[in-house]
Design brief:
The chain has about 120 residues and is an all-alpha fold. The protein has a domain at about 45-125. It contains 4 helices and no strands. The chain has helices spanning about 5-10, 20-30, 45-75, 75-120. α2 packs parallel to α4 (about 75-120) and α3 runs antiparallel to α4. It is elongated.
C-alpha cells in the first residue's frame, strides 16, 4: 500500500473502517520482515485492540455529537436535561476509549520504530 493511500483511506468513509488497520499490519510486516515484507509475522493482538478501541471511540463520539445536535435544536427544558447528561457521559466514554486506543498503539509504534532503526543501522551487505 503506498504511503499516500495509507493516509487517504482514513478519509474515505467506508474504507476507513478497515484499511488503516491493514496499513498498520503491512507496516508491521515490512518492518519486522524486511527481506520480503510479505512474511507471516503478524502484528500482536494489541493491534486489533487498538483498532477496535479506535473505532469504538469514534462511534461513541459520533453518537454523543448527534445527541448534542438534537439538544441544540430543541428548546424543551426536560428534553435538554434528559439528553445532556447521557450525551456528556457518552463523550467521556468516547474520550476514555480513544485514550485506551492510544495506549494500545504506543508499544506497537515503539516496536516498529525499533525494527526500522535496526534496519537503518545494519551494515550494508
Amino acid at each position: 500500500m503506498p504511503p499516500a493511500w495509507a493516509v487517504a483511506y482514513n478519509f474515505i468513509p467506508w474504507m476507513s473502517f478497515w484499511k488503516p488497520y491493514f496499513a498498520m499490519r503491512q507496516l508491521w510486516r515490512g518492518s519486522l520482515d524486511p527481506e520480503n515484507g510479505k512474511g507471516r509475522i503478524d502484528p500482536p493482538n494489541l493491534a486489533i485492540a487498538w483498532w477496535v478501541a479506535w473505532l469504538a471511540g469514534g462511534t461513541l463520539y459520533s453518537i454523543a455529537s448527534a445527541m448534542m445536535d438534537a439538544l441544540a435544536r430543541s428548546g424543551d427544558w426536560p428534553f435538554y436535561f434528559n439528553t445532556y447528561v447521557p450525551a456528556l457521559w457518552m463523550s467521556i466514554a468516547a474520550t476514555i476509549v480513544t485514550l485506551l486506543s492510544v495506549i494500545c498503539l504506543l508499544p506497537i509504534v515503539r516496536q516498529i520504530a525499533k525494527a526500522q532503526d535496526a534496519m537503518l543501522l545494519a551494515p550494508a551487505a
